[in-house]
Amino acid sequence: MNSSFTLIAIGSALLGSIANILARTLLKNLKSRDILGINFLTMGATLLIISPFFYSFTPSIIACSLVILIAFIDTLANYFFFKTFEHTEASVATPILSLAPAFTFLLGWLILDDTVHLSSYVFSFLILIGIIIFSTDFSNFSKFKTATLQPAILSSFLFGISAIPSKYLLSTLEAINSPTLYMFRAGLIALFALLFFNFQLRDITASQYRFIFFRGLFVIGQWTLLYFALTRGNAGVTVTLANITPVFVFILGALFLSEKPTLKKVAASILVLVLSFVI
Predict the structure, then answer these.
(1) What is the mean pLDDT of residues 62-71?
(2) Which residues, in sequence order, are bridge partners of residue 79?
């Protein structure tokens, strides 16, 4: 993978870690179904305002279908993403939320012929298991499984598979550029959230709206960089690098959220970092 695209993917991870920290702060007082719709409505509107500077889309039945498919998958992925942060520290949730590369490698190989060495694929799953073990609160496993493990794994799986149609749309079809794809994605997720989750705008205060907008800027940057890296890089490697967020979350969480740097959290962060170098 070209070094410039490697740095772009890592930049996506850094912005994503800040977004995760802000999500945890925001979801202490809001429900995931309420933030889901307004979060993406705000980001979609922001991008729409500046879209004359970047808009590029060649519509076709395949391209439009893929955009809708990506948005539908990511609507569910984001719901479970926010659900994880309702009851979980950012430094605990993020390692499990960073397991998407394992699913991207498999589907990338099956669908896009994005091949990797078999040993890298096997090792990624060994690290995946290790991350779950080091991130699990065995003292209260039942609560951890329901509040953290289940929604985080579902979110990772969905984000992992959505990278495949995104890669195909951006790289193979070359029908759209990264900011345009994210603008469409954000708008459609807001629509799906309204239809399926019935989010309530009246439950959000003015200060929370400002916070959502501020966080949205980091998310826009995170996903625009990820999509840009996907246009040229291997899907699995790109998603892996974009998911080394635990390394950054561990540091930011300790600095700004007073989250204690336990051995388990350090180990989980290191394992994800190892994943980014080994594969």
Answers:
(1) 96
(2) none
